[in-house]
Protein backbone atom coordinates (compact mmCIF):
# COMPACT_ATOMS: atom_id res chain seq x y z
CA UNK A 1 0.00 0.00 0.00
CA UNK A 2 1.48 3.34 -1.09
CA UNK A 3 1.85 6.30 1.27
CA UNK A 4 -0.89 8.23 -0.52
CA UNK A 5 -3.27 5.28 -0.36
CA UNK A 6 -2.54 4.78 3.34
CA UNK A 7 -3.13 8.48 4.03
CA UNK A 8 -6.50 8.35 2.23
CA UNK A 9 -7.58 5.24 4.11
CA UNK A 10 -6.68 6.70 7.49
CA UNK A 11 -8.48 9.93 6.67
CA UNK A 12 -11.58 8.03 5.57
CA UNK A 13 -11.42 5.96 8.75
CA UNK A 14 -11.43 9.06 10.95
CA UNK A 15 -14.15 10.68 8.84
CA UNK A 16 -16.40 7.62 9.10
CA UNK A 17 -16.06 7.29 12.86
CA UNK A 18 -16.76 11.03 13.15
CA UNK A 19 -20.21 10.41 11.71
CA UNK A 20 -20.93 8.21 14.74
CA UNK A 21 -19.04 10.06 17.49
CA UNK A 22 -20.00 13.62 16.59
CA UNK A 23 -17.80 16.58 17.49
CA UNK A 24 -14.91 14.52 18.91
CA UNK A 25 -12.39 14.45 16.06
CA UNK A 26 -9.38 15.02 18.32
CA UNK A 27 -10.29 12.04 20.53
CA UNK A 28 -10.94 9.89 17.44
CA UNK A 29 -7.48 10.77 16.09
CA UNK A 30 -6.00 9.79 19.47
CA UNK A 31 -7.80 6.45 19.33
CA UNK A 32 -6.55 5.69 15.82
CA UNK A 33 -3.01 6.79 16.70
CA UNK A 34 -3.07 4.49 19.73
CA UNK A 35 -4.11 1.56 17.54
CA UNK A 36 -1.47 2.36 14.90
CA UNK A 37 1.20 2.50 17.60
CA UNK A 38 0.24 -0.99 18.77
CA UNK A 39 -0.89 0.20 22.19
CA UNK A 40 -4.09 -0.03 24.22
CA UNK A 41 -6.53 2.71 25.12
CA UNK A 42 -8.14 3.67 28.43
CA UNK A 43 -11.18 5.97 28.31
CA UNK A 44 -12.10 7.52 31.64
CA UNK A 45 -15.46 9.25 31.73
CA UNK A 46 -18.98 9.20 33.07
CA UNK A 47 -21.44 6.65 31.62
CA UNK A 48 -23.35 7.50 28.48
CA UNK A 49 -20.96 9.73 26.52
CA UNK A 50 -20.16 7.22 23.73
CA UNK A 51 -17.25 5.12 24.97
CA UNK A 52 -18.77 1.80 23.90
CA UNK A 53 -20.04 3.26 20.64
CA UNK A 54 -16.56 4.50 19.74
CA UNK A 55 -15.04 1.04 20.26
CA UNK A 56 -17.75 -0.67 18.21
CA UNK A 57 -17.52 1.86 15.36
CA UNK A 58 -13.74 1.46 15.20
CA UNK A 59 -13.96 -2.33 15.01
CA UNK A 60 -16.63 -2.29 12.28
CA UNK A 61 -14.75 0.33 10.24
CA UNK A 62 -11.63 -1.87 10.27
CA UNK A 63 -13.37 -5.19 9.69
CA UNK A 64 -12.14 -6.54 13.04
CA UNK A 65 -13.77 -9.09 15.33
CA UNK A 66 -15.30 -7.21 18.23
CA UNK A 67 -15.96 -8.49 21.73
CA UNK A 68 -17.36 -6.67 24.75
CA UNK A 69 -16.98 -7.71 28.38
CA UNK A 70 -18.94 -5.98 31.11
CA UNK A 71 -16.63 -5.98 34.11
CA UNK A 72 -18.48 -6.61 37.37
CA UNK A 73 -17.45 -7.46 40.92
CA UNK A 74 -18.16 -11.18 40.37
CA UNK A 75 -16.34 -11.48 37.02
CA UNK A 76 -13.69 -14.22 37.18
CA UNK A 77 -10.46 -14.46 35.14
CA UNK A 78 -11.81 -17.60 33.44
CA UNK A 79 -14.80 -15.59 32.24
CA UNK A 80 -12.32 -13.45 30.34
CA UNK A 81 -9.71 -15.87 28.96
CA UNK A 82 -11.76 -19.06 28.68
CA UNK A 83 -11.85 -22.50 30.24
CA UNK A 84 -11.43 -26.18 29.30
CA UNK A 85 -14.56 -28.31 29.56
CA UNK A 86 -14.72 -32.10 29.43
CA UNK A 87 -16.84 -33.26 26.49
CA UNK A 88 -18.09 -36.83 26.67
CA UNK A 89 -18.49 -37.18 22.92
CA UNK A 90 -14.78 -36.55 22.41
CA UNK A 91 -13.67 -38.03 25.75
CA UNK A 92 -11.30 -35.14 26.33
CA UNK A 93 -11.09 -31.61 27.65
CA UNK A 94 -11.86 -29.00 24.99
CA UNK A 95 -10.78 -25.39 25.42
CA UNK A 96 -13.53 -22.83 24.99
CA UNK A 97 -11.90 -19.44 24.33
CA UNK A 98 -13.18 -16.45 26.21
CA UNK A 99 -13.98 -13.00 24.82
CA UNK A 100 -10.32 -11.93 25.08
CA UNK A 101 -9.74 -13.87 21.82
CA UNK A 102 -10.99 -10.97 19.72
CA UNK A 103 -9.20 -8.34 17.67
CA UNK A 104 -10.88 -5.44 19.45
CA UNK A 105 -11.76 -6.13 23.08
CA UNK A 106 -13.90 -3.63 24.95
CA UNK A 107 -13.33 -4.01 28.69
CA UNK A 108 -16.30 -1.99 29.85
CA UNK A 109 -16.08 -0.39 33.30
CA UNK A 110 -12.83 -2.20 34.04
CA UNK A 111 -12.51 -0.69 37.50
CA UNK A 112 -15.74 -2.32 38.69
CA UNK A 113 -14.05 -5.74 38.66
CA UNK A 114 -11.79 -6.96 41.45
CA UNK A 115 -7.99 -6.73 41.24
CA UNK A 116 -7.64 -10.45 40.41
CA UNK A 117 -9.71 -10.09 37.26
CA UNK A 118 -8.07 -6.80 36.33
CA UNK A 119 -4.66 -8.47 36.49
CA UNK A 120 -5.83 -11.21 34.11
CA UNK A 121 -5.58 -8.64 31.32
CA UNK A 122 -1.90 -7.89 31.97
CA UNK A 123 -0.35 -10.77 30.04
CA UNK A 124 -2.83 -10.38 27.20
CA UNK A 125 -2.12 -6.68 26.80
CA UNK A 126 1.66 -6.90 27.12
CA UNK A 127 2.48 -10.25 25.49
CA UNK A 128 -0.53 -10.70 23.17
CA UNK A 129 -1.00 -14.16 24.61
CA UNK A 130 -2.70 -15.83 27.55
CA UNK A 131 -1.70 -18.80 29.70
CA UNK A 132 -4.58 -21.11 30.48
CA UNK A 133 -4.09 -24.31 32.49
CA UNK A 134 -0.36 -24.39 31.75
CA UNK A 135 -0.68 -23.80 28.01
CA UNK A 136 0.18 -20.55 26.25
CA UNK A 137 -2.30 -19.49 23.59
CA UNK A 138 -1.59 -16.62 21.18
CA UNK A 139 -4.17 -13.90 20.65
CA UNK A 140 -5.26 -12.81 17.17
CA UNK A 141 -3.50 -10.04 15.28
CA UNK A 142 -4.09 -7.17 15.49
CA UNK A 143 -5.15 -7.12 19.15
CA UNK A 144 -6.43 -3.88 20.64
CA UNK A 145 -7.91 -3.36 24.10
CA UNK A 146 -10.18 -0.40 24.76
CA UNK A 147 -11.01 -0.22 28.45
CA UNK A 148 -13.52 2.19 29.91
CA UNK A 149 -13.27 3.42 33.46
CA UNK A 150 -15.76 5.27 35.61
CA UNK A 151 -14.49 8.10 37.82
CA UNK A 152 -12.98 6.55 40.96
CA UNK A 153 -15.27 8.56 43.23
CA UNK A 154 -18.27 6.54 42.01
CA UNK A 155 -19.57 3.66 44.11
CA UNK A 156 -18.26 0.15 43.51
CA UNK A 157 -14.99 1.02 41.79
CA UNK A 158 -11.50 -0.38 42.36
CA UNK A 159 -8.62 1.92 41.34
CA UNK A 160 -6.35 0.39 38.71
CA UNK A 161 -2.83 -0.30 40.03
CA UNK A 162 0.12 1.50 38.47
CA UNK A 163 1.28 -1.67 36.72
CA UNK A 164 -2.09 -1.94 34.97
CA UNK A 165 -2.25 1.75 34.06
CA UNK A 166 1.23 1.53 32.52
CA UNK A 167 -0.04 -1.07 30.04
CA UNK A 168 -2.31 1.53 28.46
CA UNK A 169 -0.52 3.64 25.89
CA UNK A 170 -3.11 6.41 26.14
CA UNK A 171 -5.80 7.60 28.50
CA UNK A 172 -8.41 9.98 27.08
CA UNK A 173 -11.69 11.57 28.09
CA UNK A 174 -14.55 12.07 25.65
CA UNK A 175 -16.53 14.58 27.68
CA UNK A 176 -19.98 15.91 26.96
CA UNK A 177 -20.79 16.95 23.36
CA UNK A 178 -21.12 20.61 22.45
CA UNK A 179 -24.59 22.01 21.83
CA UNK A 180 -24.53 21.53 18.05
CA UNK A 181 -23.24 17.95 18.26
CA UNK A 182 -25.76 17.02 20.93
CA UNK A 183 -28.56 18.44 18.77
CA UNK A 184 -27.42 16.16 15.94
CA UNK A 185 -27.54 13.19 18.32
CA UNK A 186 -30.99 14.11 19.60
CA UNK A 187 -32.51 14.67 16.17
CA UNK A 188 -30.74 11.80 14.37
CA UNK A 189 -31.32 8.08 14.38
CA UNK A 190 -29.93 5.62 16.92
CA UNK A 191 -26.15 5.38 16.54
CA UNK A 192 -26.30 1.60 16.94
CA UNK A 193 -28.45 1.39 13.79
CA UNK A 194 -25.98 3.61 11.92
CA UNK A 195 -23.06 1.39 12.93
CA UNK A 196 -24.82 -1.66 11.48
CA UNK A 197 -24.74 -0.01 8.05
CA UNK A 198 -21.06 0.96 8.16
CA UNK A 199 -18.63 -0.69 5.78
CA UNK A 200 -15.01 -1.53 6.44
CA UNK A 201 -12.60 1.21 5.33
CA UNK A 202 -9.54 -1.01 5.88
CA UNK A 203 -9.07 -4.73 6.39
CA UNK A 204 -6.94 -6.35 9.14
CA UNK A 205 -3.99 -6.97 6.80
CA UNK A 206 -3.93 -3.32 5.76
CA UNK A 207 -4.10 -2.25 9.40
CA UNK A 208 -1.08 -4.41 10.26
CA UNK A 209 0.76 -2.85 7.29
CA UNK A 210 -0.12 0.61 8.63
CA UNK A 211 1.17 -0.35 12.07
CA UNK A 212 4.47 -1.43 10.52
CA UNK A 213 4.67 1.87 8.62
CA UNK A 214 4.72 3.71 11.96
CA UNK A 215 8.24 2.42 12.64
CA UNK A 216 9.42 3.95 9.34
CA UNK A 217 8.56 7.49 10.45
CA UNK A 218 11.83 9.41 10.88
CA UNK A 219 12.89 10.78 14.27
CA UNK A 220 15.68 13.38 14.32
CA UNK A 221 18.31 13.74 17.03
CA UNK A 222 16.86 17.15 17.93
CA UNK A 223 13.44 15.58 18.47
CA UNK A 224 14.97 12.91 20.70
CA UNK A 225 16.72 15.67 22.68
CA UNK A 226 13.34 17.36 23.18
CA UNK A 227 11.65 14.13 24.28
CA UNK A 228 14.48 13.38 26.71
CA UNK A 229 14.20 16.90 28.13
CA UNK A 230 10.49 16.31 28.80
CA UNK A 231 11.18 12.93 30.41
CA UNK A 232 13.92 14.46 32.56
CA UNK A 233 11.50 17.19 33.66
CA UNK A 234 9.06 14.56 34.94
CA UNK A 235 11.89 13.10 37.07
CA UNK A 236 13.12 16.41 38.49
CA UNK A 237 10.75 16.34 41.46
CA UNK A 238 9.43 19.79 40.59
CA UNK A 239 6.32 18.59 38.81
CA UNK A 240 5.64 14.97 39.75
CA UNK A 241 6.27 12.58 42.63
CA UNK A 242 7.96 10.06 40.35
CA UNK A 243 9.04 10.43 36.73
CA UNK A 244 8.36 8.51 33.55
CA UNK A 245 10.04 5.14 33.05
CA UNK A 246 12.10 4.24 29.97
CA UNK A 247 9.19 2.05 28.82
CA UNK A 248 6.91 5.07 28.99
CA UNK A 249 9.39 7.12 26.93
CA UNK A 250 9.44 4.44 24.22
CA UNK A 251 5.64 4.35 24.22
CA UNK A 252 5.42 8.14 23.86
CA UNK A 253 7.77 8.04 20.88
CA UNK A 254 5.65 5.33 19.19
CA UNK A 255 2.53 7.42 19.71
CA UNK A 256 4.23 10.52 18.29
CA UNK A 257 5.26 8.54 15.21
CA UNK A 258 1.68 7.36 14.76
CA UNK A 259 0.40 10.91 15.13
CA UNK A 260 2.85 12.06 12.45
CA UNK A 261 1.62 9.30 10.14
CA UNK A 262 -1.95 10.47 10.67
CA UNK A 263 -0.75 13.95 9.73
CA UNK A 264 0.59 12.52 6.44
CA UNK A 265 4.22 13.20 7.34
CA UNK A 266 7.21 10.87 7.30
CA UNK A 267 8.94 12.59 10.23
CA UNK A 268 8.04 13.43 13.83
CA UNK A 269 7.70 17.11 14.70
CA UNK A 270 7.66 18.64 18.21
CA UNK A 271 3.96 19.35 17.66
CA UNK A 272 3.35 15.59 17.48
CA UNK A 273 4.97 15.06 20.87
CA UNK A 274 3.04 17.95 22.39
CA UNK A 275 -0.23 16.68 20.90
CA UNK A 276 0.03 13.24 22.49
CA UNK A 277 2.05 13.84 25.68
CA UNK A 278 -0.92 14.59 28.01
CA UNK A 279 -2.75 11.47 26.80
CA UNK A 280 0.30 9.21 27.03
CA UNK A 281 1.96 10.54 30.22
CA UNK A 282 -0.66 11.98 32.58
CA UNK A 283 -2.13 8.64 33.72
CA UNK A 284 1.38 7.44 34.60
CA UNK A 285 2.22 10.43 36.79
CA UNK A 286 1.17 11.86 40.17
CA UNK A 287 1.56 15.65 40.60
CA UNK A 288 3.47 16.93 43.62
CA UNK A 289 1.27 17.93 46.53
CA UNK A 290 1.92 21.64 46.03
CA UNK A 291 0.83 21.62 42.37
CA UNK A 292 -2.84 22.35 42.89
CA UNK A 293 -3.54 20.97 39.40
CA UNK A 294 -4.81 17.76 37.91
CA UNK A 295 -2.52 15.36 36.06
CA UNK A 296 -3.27 16.63 32.56
CA UNK A 297 -2.99 20.29 33.56
CA UNK A 298 0.34 19.59 35.27
CA UNK A 299 1.72 17.90 32.14
CA UNK A 300 0.72 20.89 30.04
CA UNK A 301 2.31 23.31 32.50
CA UNK A 302 5.52 21.28 32.37
CA UNK A 303 5.52 21.32 28.56
CA UNK A 304 5.27 25.11 28.58
CA UNK A 305 8.29 25.29 30.88
CA UNK A 306 10.47 22.99 28.74
CA UNK A 307 11.92 24.82 25.75
CA UNK A 308 11.53 23.60 22.18
CA UNK A 309 14.60 22.28 20.37
How does this structure look, described?
- The chain is an alpha/beta fold.
- It has two domains: 3-206, 3-Layer(aba) Sandwich (Rossmann fold), CATH 3.40.50; 215-305, Magnesium chelatase subunit I, C-Terminal domain (Helicase, Ruva Protein, domain 3, Orthogonal Bundle).
- The protein has 13 helices and nine strands.
- The strands form three sheets. The protein has a five-stranded parallel beta sheet with strand order 2-5-8-1-9.
- The longest helix has 17 residues, at 246-262.
- The radius of gyration is 20 Å and the shape is globular.
The computed structural class is alpha/beta
Number of helices: 13
Biggest sheet, in brief?
A: 5 strands, parallel
**N-to-C SSE series?**
HHEHEHEEEHEEEHEHHHHHHH
How many domain modules?
Answer: 2
Q: CATH topology of the largest domain, what is it called?
A: Rossmann fold
DSSP E strands, number: 9
Low-pLDDT regions: none
CATH homologous superfamily label of the largest domain: P-loop containing nucleotide triphosphate hydrolases
Could you tell me the radius of gyration in angstroms? 20 Å
Strand content: 5-15%
CATH class identity of the largest domain: Alpha Beta
Q: Strand order, biggest sheet?
A: 2-5-8-1-9
Q: Outline, from the CA principal axes?
A: globular
CATH architecture call of the largest domain:
3-Layer(aba) Sandwich
| CA distance, first residue to last residue | 34 Å
- The overall pLDDT, averaged over residues, is 87
Amino acid sequence: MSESTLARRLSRLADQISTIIVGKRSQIDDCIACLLAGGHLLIEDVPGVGKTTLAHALAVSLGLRFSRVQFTADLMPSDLVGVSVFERSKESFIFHPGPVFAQVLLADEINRAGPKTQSALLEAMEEHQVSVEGETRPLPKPFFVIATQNPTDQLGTYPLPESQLDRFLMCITLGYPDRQSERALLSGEDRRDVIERLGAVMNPAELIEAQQAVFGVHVSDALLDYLQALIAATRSGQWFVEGLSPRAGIAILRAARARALLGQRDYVAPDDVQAILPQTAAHRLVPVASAGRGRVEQVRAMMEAVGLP
